Amino acid sequence: MTSGFPGSPRTVRAGLVMLDAKSGALQRVIVLQYTPDALSRTLQAQGASGDAGDRLDALRLKAQPVETIKIDAEIDAADQLETPDQHDRTVRLGINPELSTLETAIFPRADAVQANITLAGTGALEITPVQAPLALFVWSENRIVPVRITDLSVTEEAFDPNLNPLRAKVSLSLRVLTVNDLPLGHRGAGIYLAYHRAREQMAAAVPGALTQLGIRRIP
Q: Parallel, antiparallel, or unpaired for β 165-176 and 26-31?
């Protein structure tokens, strides 16, 4: 969302990028209308020992942490409806198209579903699940990670006379996909590894000293 104050910096928007799972070709960019004010992240460590209490594995990490991201986004047609002659689509459909871009990210393609129905009708014994695109969550150039959308909640709050939604709040829950979640050589694995390395580089830029903790040596 751009500030109305003159000279204020332009705010980069957040969103999702959908890539073809096999070729990596760009399929769609989903830009959030307003960048959420807050982002919640949870990282669950993946220790090798688990609850077994094995002393040899007490300090081992078997994989990257399980990272989940939660954001609440707002979609509002108010700005577009101030100039209805320039936004015919919004006048006719409200924010249905914007909501659909998010919702269809977790729908299998209709043509793929129809193909499976046709196969089932011919007596095929095994129906292959539909391959979803690779979703990337983009929150600035420093945070681009492959994700799976695990939950999407929409609360529609205002409607036009035809009951098209004009304002809504969308809650997204995302599970970050690591190199252990994706096939070897998958483009998403390379994108995650770049994110992993970027975290290490930023961490290395922050100095620390024992004296800052009030001690001079480790016993």
A: unpaired
- Give the C-alpha separation, 137 to 172, whole Å: 11
> Is the residue at 6 inside a domain?
no
Helix (H) or strand (E) holding 45: strand 39-47
Distance CA 44, CA 68 (A): 9
In this structure, is residue 168 part of a structural domain? yes
pLDDT > 90 fraction of the chain, expressed in percent and rounded: 69
pLDDT tens digits, one per residue of 95-145: 999 999 999 999 988 888 888 888 888 887 677 788 889 999 999 999 999
Domain count for the chain, please give it. 1
What is the extent of the structural domain holding 155? 15-100+133-202
Q: Which residues contact 146 (CB under 8 A, 6 or more apart)?
A: 134, 135, 136, 137, 176, 177, 182, 188, 189, 191, 192
